[in-house]
Amino acid sequence: MKKSHIYIHVPFCESKCPYCAFGSDVNLRGIPAYFAALLSEIKAANLGEISTIFIGGGTPSVVRAEFYAPIFEILNKFLDKSPEITVEANPNSASLKWLSQMKNLGVNRVSFGAQSFDEKKLKFLGRIHSAKQIYKAVENAKIAGLERINVDLIYMSKFDTKKMLEFECENIANLGISHVSAYALTLEIDTPFFSHKNFAKNSPNLAKFLFRNLANLGLNQYEISNFGEICRHNLSYWQGENYLGFGVFAVGFDGEKRLYSPKNTQEYIKNPLKKEFEILSKENLHLERLFLGLRSVVGISKTELNEQELERANLLVNEKKLTEFEGKFYNKNYLLSDEIALFLVS
């Protein structure tokens, strides 16, 4: 039986953050109809043995656990012996009751959208929780039996200095968690932040400083934005494995093409089985494998490279920009990953 990785998109949020370009919907009255559509899409899917599930958003924790129960009734029949099941949550909406209920449904990993422990930076980012609520949410997750905990951080905002990043890392250390996702603030088109160029910084030195501090906490970088105990669902993307995407805005991949759900909640509810397809050429798939491998611990196999690319990879090994081990090339500086990939294929 084929292995399945599953992503489920829950678009609902209490409010829209001004930097966020992800698909979200603040009309919480639409939750019942949306979950009915989601259930029908999952029922119609060709599910294999499920290795990982990731419930993202949006803010999945604004939806009561009872809405997730029918979904898990279906998916639980297909789980392998040790599935990794992650749900995203916001510190202000992830109560002990909700976390316990999700744990009882089968969730064994939680990812909190913290973004910062500094109150001014939180307000700037439009977050509606406090640093104190991050601590409470992590405590509640542990009480609920969810030991695998991730916290998201945003860096490269106008507030970020070495002192600020040290402060963020001190708080991470106090939480005693196993994973951090750190994302550089980008000014996305069609977001309120886009026209404010001074809101974000571009400083590789600050990024390296943050990465070193996280490593000093035992949270080693395994992908451009992820640190600590490896998330199997995350890694499946970087390994180029197939995955199913359920819900509005969701994306799937079957090894040859990408499948896109509608990008409008009401349109999705009307026809949850509708998908658009993007057929990927061999060249596109090859380039994607290079980019993904160089941005993570996955690396790139020698057998994936043509003669010219292999020659250039060996040149980069000589220049100590790549390392070679057991027939694979690895990139140790993920900040240079895109530049290296483009050099190999140019």
- Using the 3D structure, state the CATH architecture of the largest domain: Alpha-Beta Horseshoe
Judging from the principal axes of the Cα atoms, what is the shape?
globular
Low-confidence stretches: none
CATH topology description of the largest domain: pyruvate-formate lyase- activating enzyme
Number of strands: 15
The CATH H-level homologous superfamily of the largest domain: tm_1862 like domain
Estimate nothing, just give the exact number of structural domains: 2
Short description:
The protein has helices spanning 31-44, 65-75, 96-105, 119-124, 131-143, 162-175, 204-216, 232-238, 265-270, 282-294, 307-318, 337-345; strands at 3-10, 49-57, 79-89, 109-115, 148-155, 179-184, 221-223, 226-228, 244-246, 251-253, 257-260, 276-279, 300-301, 323-325, 328-330. By secondary structure, the chain is an alpha/beta fold. It has two domains: 3-238, pyruvate-formate lyase- activating enzyme (Alpha-Beta Horseshoe), CATH 3.80.30; 282-345, no CATH class.
